[in-house]
Amino acid sequence: MARRVAVAHTVTATVAAWIVGFVIFFPILWMAITSFKTELEAFNTPPSFLLFQWTTENYATVQERSNYLHHAPNSIIIAGGSTLVAMVIAIPAAWSMAFVPSRRTRDILLWILSTKMMPAVGVLVPIYLIFRDLALLDSRIGLLCILCLSNLPIVVWMLFTYFKEIPKDILEASRMDGATIGRELVYVLTPMAVPGIASTILLNVILAWNEAFWTLNLSTSEAAPLTVFIASYSSPEGLFWAKLSAASTLAIAPILVLGWFTQRQLVRGLTFGAVK
Amino acid sequence: MGSITLQDVRKAFGPHVVIPGANLQIEDGSFVVFVGASGCGKTTLLRMIAGLEDVTSGRIMIDGANVVDVPPARRGLSMVFQSYALYPHMSVRGNIAFGLKMAGLPRPEIDRKVDAAAAILNLTSYLDRKPRELSGGQRQRVAIGRAIVREPKAFLFDEPLSNLDAALRVQMRQEVTRLQRQLKTTAIYVTHDQVEAMTMADRIVVLNAGSIEQYGTPLELYERPANLFVAGFIGSPRMNMIERETEQHRGAATIGVRPEHMTVSRDGDGWSGTVRAAEHLGSDTFLYVDTPEIGSITVRCVGELGLGEGDSVRLRPDPTRIHRFDKSGTAIR
């Protein structure tokens, strides 16, 4: 009896999870489908779901009009580079706050996070002027810096919560075993923190890849990543749903693949500390 | 060599004083147990000796040299943690070898020492396993192996057996004691369990609110407790403290009589009372007796007495084993 109830529970939970998953995934699916329609078909009401004339002409047009292979490397450099720099800064920061906390550590952490509470548009003008004066507008290095800075709070917090979970006893044991701080980091802490560092890197790459506000405002062509590539299809000449969808599908494809293969790490990173 | 001396060692976290000033002399090769209730500062004191906690003031001498400013890595001590604190990503061999590797010993020598330590602790067949593949007792032995392999000046044990079940604890207690006698290395062992303290120690330090109440051999503490705290802490069941005036007082503010130092009879002289509850353990009987004269008294009798709830009894303390304390709680000798 109890067993049957348990099975029913499992089935209900599974069905519910699939429904929720489908609802969340639906916009992406819809976008992918729309990218294979003609512009006319894309505007049809009621919309056709699968029974329409499938075409790949949008992809051809998009590639012809704006070179995907110019924007994709920019996205890779900006997302990858900003993540790398953020890690170099955040690992030692999180380390010291997790293992050698001072009376002000809590305040510093909150202060770091508070910068995320400010709407980015509030500092757009000063940042724009600084970028102009430093000749950083439409440069990869400029975008790399701004994305690194804007994601740094999240990276520090993620690593901090992760490091916090590492028992202090183990570090102290290595100290008693004669390890210097440097060796303690290399031989004991880093191997234990690898899963946390990996999931932080992944999440940060995704955040940087999808970041649209700064990339749209601070770049035009040379350094423009894929976000600019997508945005160019929502233009004054009118909306091109099918081409916009094709561009978006192309833009998210690499990160979707990355996310698919690393989903276990990602989920672990996002829920870390939530469940003991 | 491993003699350890504490001179006026003080510890405060901001305005909160944890250790108001400890003085202690631990001789080379002895097994000293710090015992006290939780929060009494025993672990803090141990961590200060280890170097994991800063000393607010005072001196800690190891073999005559003040080590207060020496980092833990260079004090030549090794520690066994309550949580075992094994390196989860290393094999048992890696765990035991880590300290030797840090010391820069050549590989063949490391292997030889690890194998020797593993043999002593019956870990030879587990050397390639990860800590998560071991039972609690085996993990504890790895932690001990990691401590002994470095041949330290002293071992520091921080409640190492408290995560083990009762049977294993008794076994490990004996193993640790045997190992320490064999290696003749100074050991400081922190516990809240007075049975561990009494059975393992050469000398016991009883701590209360960060102060050392008494330092002595187990039997000294049992037979001549320095004050009310030690009298109440050592011995199970607890010593009976009698504050009401009786003919045995002889000028003391409080007298203490251990439950096992009283004789019980159905009639005769002595304090009269009624048995409120009786616990029959077979080997012993614990009687909880209410007396109109001196309050509630616990008595421990050897064997089975056939006394039960509601029976009237007479209690006679052994006059040579009455402990007397003055108003401040200090023993009168």
Automatic annotation (TrEMBL), chain A:
Ranges where the ABC transmembrane type-1 domain occurs: 72-262
Keywords for the protein's UniProt record, in alphabetical order: Cell membrane, Membrane, Transmembrane, Transmembrane helix, Transport
A Pfam family of this chain: BPD_transp_1
GO biological process: one example: transmembrane transport
SUPFAM superfamilies: MetI-like (SSF161098)
Membrane-topology descriptor: Multi-pass membrane protein
The family this protein is said to belong to: Belongs to the binding-protein-dependent transport system permease family.
Name of the protein in its database record: Carbohydrate ABC transporter permease
Species whose genome carries this gene: Vineibacter terrae
From TrEMBL, chain B:
GO molecular function: ABC-type maltose transporter activity; ATP binding; ATP hydrolysis activity
Location in or out of the cell: Cell inner membrane
Gene Ontology CC: ATP-binding cassette (ABC) transporter complex, substrate-binding subunit-containing; maltose transport complex
Membrane topology, from the record: Peripheral membrane protein
UniProt keyword terms in alphabetical order: ATP-binding, Nucleotide-binding, Transport
Highest taxon above the source species: Bacteria
Gene3D superfamilies from the UniProt entry: 2.40.50.100, Nucleic acid-binding proteins (2.40.50.140), P-loop containing nucleotide triphosphate hydrolases (3.40.50.300)
Residue stretches making up the ABC transporter domain: 4-234
NCBIfam families assigned to the protein according to its UniProt record, in alphabetical order: PRK11650.1
Family listed: Belongs to the ABC transporter superfamily.
Name of this chain's protein: ABC transporter ATP-binding protein
Lineage summary: Bacteria, Pseudomonadati, Pseudomonadota, Alphaproteobacteria, Hyphomicrobiales
